[in-house]
Each structure stands twice: as structure tokens, then as C-alpha cells.
TrEMBL record, chain A:
Homology family: Belongs to the ETF beta-subunit/FixA family.
Alphabetic keyword roster: Electron transport, Transport
Protein name stated in the entry: Unannotated protein
Organism of derivation: freshwater metagenome
GO cellular component, one term: cytosol
Lineage of the organism: unclassified sequences, metagenomes, ecological metagenomes
GO molecular function: electron transfer activity
UniProtKB/TrEMBL annotation, chain B:
Pathway involvement of the protein, from the record: Amino-acid metabolism; lysine degradation; Amino-acid metabolism; tryptophan metabolism
Domain Acyl-CoA oxidase/dehydrogenase middle per the UniProt entry, residue ranges: 145-234
Family annotation (SUPFAM superfamilies): Acyl-CoA dehydrogenase C-terminal domain-like (SSF47203), Acyl-CoA dehydrogenase NM domain-like (SSF56645)
Keyword Mitochondrion: yes
Biological processes per GO annotation: fatty acid beta-oxidation using acyl-CoA dehydrogenase; fatty-acyl-CoA biosynthetic process
Record bears the keyword Oxidoreductase: yes
The protein's name in its UniProt record: glutaryl-CoA dehydrogenase (ETF)
EC number annotated for this UniProt entry: 1.3.8.6
InterPro entries linked to this entry: Acyl-CoA_DH_CS (IPR006089), Acyl-CoA_Oxase/DH_mid-dom (IPR006091), Acyl-CoA_Oxase/DH_mid-dom_sf (IPR046373), AcylCo_DH-like_C (IPR036250), AcylCo_DH/oxidase_C (IPR009075), AcylCoA_DH/ox_N (IPR013786), AcylCoA_DH/ox_N_sf (IPR037069), AcylCoA_DH/oxidase_NM_dom_sf (IPR009100)
Names of required cofactors: FAD
Organism of this sequence: freshwater metagenome
Catalytic activity: glutaryl-CoA + oxidized [electron-transfer flavoprotein] + 2 H(+) = (2E)-butenoyl-CoA + reduced [electron-transfer flavoprotein] + CO2
Amino acid sequence: MESMNVIVCVKQIPDPATPGALGADNTLKRDGKLILDESDSYGVEMALQLVDAAGGGEVSLVSMAPNGEVSGMRTALAMGAAKGMLVSDPALQGSDALTTAKVLAAAINKLGGADLIIAATESSDGYTGTVPEQIAEVLGLPSVTFAKKVVITGGTLNVNRQTEAGYDEVTCPLPAVISVTAGVVEPRYPSFKGIMAAKNKPLETVTASDLGVTPVGWAGAGQSIVSVTQAEARAAGEIIEDDGEGYAKIVAFLENLKVI
Amino acid sequence: MNLSTSPLQHTNVGGGVDPLDLLDISRLLSPEELLVQATARRFVEDHVLPGISDWYDRGVFPRDLVSEMGALGLLGMHLDGYGCAGTSAVSYGLACLEMEAGDSGIRSFVSVQGSLAMFPIWAFGSEEQKVEWLPRMAAGEAIGCFGLTEADSGSDPSSMRSHARRDGTDWVLNGSKMWITNGGIADVAVVWARTEDAVRGFVVPTDAPGFKANNIHKKSSLRASVTSELVFDDLRLPADAMLPNVAGMRGPLSCLNEARFGILCGVVGAARACYESALAYACERVQFGRPIAGFQLTQRKLVEMAVSVNKAMLVALHLGRLKDEHLITPAQVSFGKFDNVRQALEVAREARSVLGANGITLEYPVIRHMNNLESVYTYEGTNEIHTLILGQAITGLAAFK
């Protein structure tokens, strides 16, 4: 392809370096400063590389976040994305994964679609891991998950798809939706020139009703969060005093796990 | 400033307070400024911190880093055009802060390249000089240095002896410069020399016949930085090597004002790194059955450090805002250089005492910062000279001339 347009779904999340807190409705509080989910920086990098390889086209962003938050999108624009669309709407509070996918799919359509849509395998705060496939379903596009390497040849998508045993080689017509796994590319720094340029890149903010998606938020959610409990604390490991035979106990431990 | 993003936040015992940003100064920064700072910080974590103690120990400057700095847009970042990023002064200050949280030698490289070598070409150079040098220097393909100080002319630079005389249309440069950061690795030197009418700046390619750089060895400070003597022996330059748009000491002094701004921001980073290291150490180091952070004498030290770091940041940020509005005065720059460097050095020394014997090893960053700051205390206007500049500003009486 001589040119390709890629849309990357990016999530802006509370900084993982600061402890998260839950609101009264058991959802994560998102009223502070949000940053680009590191999981999405891989998708942005991959998109920029694919557009470079194609020799033309551009990378666009879609995101859904409260309070008109664009800090994380600015980071992706500073890396080299050309423009973005943010869906921000108080009515979206409580939206489940499927509603999120419908909203993002509508934003993708409003941007005019793309040759390829990229999302992270899962977000670092929600971890539902279902949104990319739901977007594909809503848009009626093929979906390839766990992409670790992506090459476009003659309008066809070639993906090395990570599996537990290794990887599958998958081919697929475009347009398509892929989810990329973390760590598969080295995300570039937002250069200082890029940061300056990002200030003037178009970033449109729309509401769910602008996109014609209803119902959303708790009203559209097929679920409710009844209660939240702490994950069980990891038990302390066993400490073995090495009396010269410590290795044997480690070997026995690993054999017991059937890893050796 | 975003003093946060520290791993300490998780273990902070202070109850919801960010120990690195007690005053919530990060609220005063724009999204672009926060992103510049976060990016610079990540760059230092990725490219500087893993190697710095070894470079310092061996006394080498990591030259490979220069092109990476260029790709990031760090070099001459606050200048416009000619391949420079064109950021605000505040962003430049934040980048200097993060570089110096890595090492003062690394920040010194950035200061000299951007503020002392690129700035005079950008501000006083001909279009040909700008086009020839600035894009390559911004990209890190060419390294610059700045020759003002001489062995016998430090605080009193106008007593310099280096001179350039006309020979036809050429210039012939003779003399020497001392304590020149980047001298031995530079591709171009901006050299200030007497001429018949005034002190003038010259853009000197270091491969010109008659140019020699001798590196200064056996330093116990700024060891990850190249410091050199420059010698000019009948060095012949074409007429167009002179910076056409400045004459007199205003030229070099305006460069120093640029660089001093980077320093007064940078040292906040060195101080923060020392404070961070002392705080983490004090929370983990157990004596008499509990972390030493729980002892009153140690808490006094930690609080003094925290307050110094936060106050120094407020000064730096305020001066950066003034600079962005083109309102900053040399005396205000002296205020920042005078007090922020002094405070940073105090923080480093206090941090060293918290770390006890461990504080003298390069396993921890503290004594490296402390030794570096001894140089920073003196270069670019000694503490004494900045005192007298401020003294003159408030009394109207010059004590040094």
C-alpha cells in the first residue's frame, strides 16, 4: 500500500504510580489527572511504524474519558499521531465494555474509518480484555488478537499472533481490528519538537449523544458492580536455609510444579 | 514541577502527601511542560542512570548519548528554528532539572551545547553561521563549546588576554582558554577574544590549524564531563568567522545569563535526587530496632532537605515564567544561581550524612552529586560574584569594580 490510515484506541488512566481509589458505585475514580495507558503506547508506536512503512497516511486516535481529559492523547500526538477524537460525557459514567466498544466504534466511524484499527490487548486499569473484539464486531470487521508482529503486503494484513506455544501466522483482509500485546515494539519518546507540534494538532471532543449512541453509562450497562473485595494477599514464600542441600529442595519444588 | 512519579509514593508514610512535591508545584505546570519533564525523566532513567556511576568512576563522558539527546530535541530546545524545538524557558528548565537529577556533568553538556554554544550563534550569528551550525548541533551531530574563562581571568573575564588581530580580511587568533566544558570533544568553539575595538565572538571550527585542546584530568568533580584547556596559536579565521551582531562583554554575559538559568533549574534535580536517596535509605535503614527515619534528628534532616528542594523549585519556576515573559533581569538570575546552588549543595551534604558510610560510595548517587555541585557552586559566576551582583542591585553600590 502506498498510504494507509490507522486509528489507535487509547485509554487514559489514573497514574499507576499513585494508588487508585473506588467511588461509591465501585468504579475506579477517574477525576484526577489521567495519563496514556502504557499498554497503548505499543499500539501507537506500531501504527506510526506501519504508516511510515506504507510511505503515507496518518495515525488518528480515539479515546473515551471523563472531564474532557486529553493529557494522554497529547502524549500520543507528541509521539506522532496526527489527530484525535475524545468522547467525554458525564452520561458515560458506569459504561461497561460493550458500551465502550459501541462508543469507540461510533467515534471511529465519525473519523471516517481506517485501513486498520489498533487497540491494546487489555487496559492496565480495567483488564476486561474484550473491547477490541467488540469493536470489530460492532464495525463488522475481522479481528486478530495478540498481535506481536504486523506486516502489510498488498492490502493484506499479516500477523504473528502470540499463543502459549509460540505464534500463529494469520493473514486477513483490510480493514481489520487488531489487538497488540505489550512490549512488542519499543515506543518512541515524545520528542520535544513533537510535544510542541502536538499543541496545534486537531483534537475534537464529542459526547455520546453527538455520536448517536444510547443508552450509555449505567443505563446501558448489562451489569452492575455489587461489591468489591481485596484480592487475596500473596502468601509469603517458603524460606529455605541453605545447608549445602538447598539446591535439591529447589529442584524438588520445581518438579512438584511440573516445570522441570 | 512534577516532583512526583517516585516509587516512594507507595511507601510514603506521610498519609497522602507526595514527599517529593509537598507544595503541589506540579499544579503550576502546563500539560506540555509536564510531558517534557516526564519524557526527560524517562530519558534519564533509560540512558543515564544505568551507566552514570561507572562513567563517573572511570572519568568518561558518554559521547554516544549526544545523538540520542539530539533525537529527543534536548539540544538548543528553547531556541526557535534551525532544527530547534522552540519550547518555553520553563520546559528547558525542567529538562535541565531532570538531566541534573541524573548528573551535573550531563546537564553541563546540555547547558554548554544549547545555551553557551548554540545561543550566541542563534542570537548574534550571521544567517550563514546559523545555517551551517545550528541544525547539526540541534541534532547532536556537532558538539559545541564556549571559550570565555582563561587561567588568569575567571570572575573578571574582561581582563582576558586572548586576542584576534586583522590580517587583510582574515582574523588571526592567539591566546588560551581554561576550564572549557566539552572542549576536547567539540567540533566548534565559540571563542571570545579582544580585538582592536571590543571583545568579539568567533565561531572556530576545532579542526582549524592552530587550534589545540588539552583535557584536564584528575578531577574529583564533574567526572562524567570533559573539561579542557583551549590553545590558539596563530589560528587563522576568515572574516565571516566573527559573530557580526554583538560587540563587548554584553555578548558573553548574555550567554551566561542563559546558561545560569539552566543551572538554577538543574541543581534542583541534583538536590531532589539526593533527598530522594536519603529518604529511601532512612526509611529502610534500621538501627536501634527501627528505621532511622523515625529518629528526630534524621527527620529534621529530611524535612530541611524537602523544604529546600521545594523552595528552590518555586524560585526556578518563577524565574522561568519571568524569562518566558522576557522580564527576567540578570540580578534575578543571580538570585536563583546564588541560592539554588547553595541549597542544593547543602542538601547533598545533609543527604550524605543520612546515608552514613554508604553515602561515600558510588553505589548511591549522593556523593557524586555532592562533588559535582562543588563545581557548579563555582562555575558560571561564583557564589561570591552572585552575592556582589545582588549586593549592587539592592544598594546601588558596586563592590567589585
